[in-house]
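Why should sequence recovery work at all? Because a backbone constrains its sequence more than one might expect. Tight turns favour small or flexible residues, buried strands favour hydrophobic ones, and helices have their own preferences. The token representation captures these environments compactly. In the example below, the structure is given first.
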């Protein structure tokens, strides 16, 4: 296969030669091209003018939920799982593909695994959205009770649920067949892939040693 058992998570100097040999196979027969999934979620934050905010009734508030001019109007722990899922989705490409410019070379033997895992992650993502939608108002009410100092600010700055959930996105394009326009371009791309992989090996080695 194009990549054999090599993954970005287990690269070490011993695998360097094997990987170079694997990249000597025909790319158009052994791999396809994929781009990273487009994944986004809201921050649950809103810019405020200064750390200590003067409210309409002239009372002031200073809270650890206001940092660097940003107010956490939505409980951040409710977004952690989305961030974890996004990291897992991107990690599939780091572990199973080689980045060349803005695209990733994916071995056909790894493609089914990547697509299956992406589907699993997207399913979890969509289920989480349903759960967060159902509890949106209750989550914010509980958050205000836990942080009474910023309750009025939350009321002032929070988004309506439709605007908040419109930011969530998880989509990916289907894989593309690798078919260079000119035969010599295949070897050029293989060389770029080798260089990219060797950089990954060097970075991994520097972290380990």
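From this structural description, the recovered sequence reads:
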């Amino acid at each position: 296969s194009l990549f054999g058992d090599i993954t970005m998570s287990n690269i070490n100097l011993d695998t360097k030669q094997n990987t170079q040999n694997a990249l000597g196979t025909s790319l158009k027969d052994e791999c396809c091209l994929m781009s990273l999934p487009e994944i986004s979620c809201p921050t649950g934050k809103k810019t405020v003018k200064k750390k200590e905010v003067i409210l309409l009734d002239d009372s002031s508030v200073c809270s650890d939920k206001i940092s660097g001019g940003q107010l956490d109007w939505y409980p951040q722990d409710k977004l952690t799982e989305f961030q974890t899922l996004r990291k897992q989705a991107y990690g599939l490409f780091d572990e199973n593909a080689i980045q060349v410019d803005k695209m990733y070379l994916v071995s056909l033997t790894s493609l089914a695994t990547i697509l299956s895992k992406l589907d699993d992650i997207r399913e979890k993502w969509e289920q989480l959205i349903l759960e967060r939608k159902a509890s949106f108002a209750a989550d914010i009410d509980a958050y205000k009770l836990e942080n009474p100092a910023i309750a009025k600010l939350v009321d002032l700055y929070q988004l309506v649920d439709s605007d908040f959930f419109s930011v969530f996105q998880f989509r990916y394009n289907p894989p593309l067949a690798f078919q260079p326009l000119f035969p010599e371009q295949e070897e050029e791309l293989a060389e770029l892939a080798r260089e990219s992989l060797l950089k990954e090996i060097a970075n991994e080695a520097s972290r380990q040693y």
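A few observations help interpret the result. The chain has eight helices and eleven strands.
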